[in-house]
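Translate sequence into structure tokens.
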Amino acid sequence: MSKYRFHAFVVATAIVVIAAGYAYWRYGPTLNGEFAEYAMLVKTDIPTALAIAPDDTVWFTMDSANAFGRLRDGKLTRVVTGKRTNVEPIGLGVDGKGIVWYTDALDQAIASMSQDGKLASFPLGTPIARLGRLAVAPDGAIWFAEGTAYSITRLKDAKLTRYVIKNVRGGPYGVTVDANGNVWATLQSGNQILRITPSGEMTEFEVPTRGSSPTDVAVDQKGNVWFTEFRGNKIAKFADGNFTEFEIPGTQSAALSGIAIAPDGSVWFGLLRQRAIGRLRDGQIKIFQLPRPDARPYTLAADKFGNVWYADISGYVGMLKASAAKR
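Result follows.
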């Protein structure tokens, strides 16, 4: 898998009803023991990025689609934007007002959709765009990995500020913001994580495993930085200037993608090649096999109840129930 591209085999079928620009799935999720899964309403839709809004709505982007997916009160909705088909929309976040922010590589922009469906676009000013993950900061600023500008970029008050990476290898992909306003990012090709302080100071930290390809990143309530090592096959923690790495058992190449911190501090991640999601808690890793043999979890998020959500690029959005996730 390249830095941003991925391939999926979509096997879902669905009943689609179009009304006022929306499509509804009438029959609810497929329940499979500890999991609930929602098939896409249009079989060519590929769920990619996933985020949870303050009102507990689950939003997700879809590759090869001109629409968002929305899960609210157990109902899956396809929200059509009216724009052309998006490509690799892997950056997504929801701010405190419920505004959905996402990367729009085809239009070379960061775009947003308000709760009433109003769309806005903020051009990047580049002829092409290669964009990674996106995060919403506590102050409402939007941060994203901008590979074509070789930067981690902030969008605030419609103004772009680029923090250009010093490492000539670079390769920005993941980004998150901690409670103190520090921005943390992964540099895939550079094999580093990057910190940008609120004052704009940039510091790079070399990951101990060579060629590990750090990808997704998250910060827990204690300020520990967690990230996946796609090629290193490890989950890593950075705290107090030191790295701790946890190797994934039972496989040499799980293809880790997506990371989320649950309310109890557990670290969750996807295993693309193992049709599974994993949990790291108290130094121990536990693997949860997904119900379908072709599952490929790409992005994860944990809600305030402890349910673990995942965007599965084989054509589903799923949830591991909190009761199972806590065991």
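Note: Residues 21-85+288-327 form one domain.
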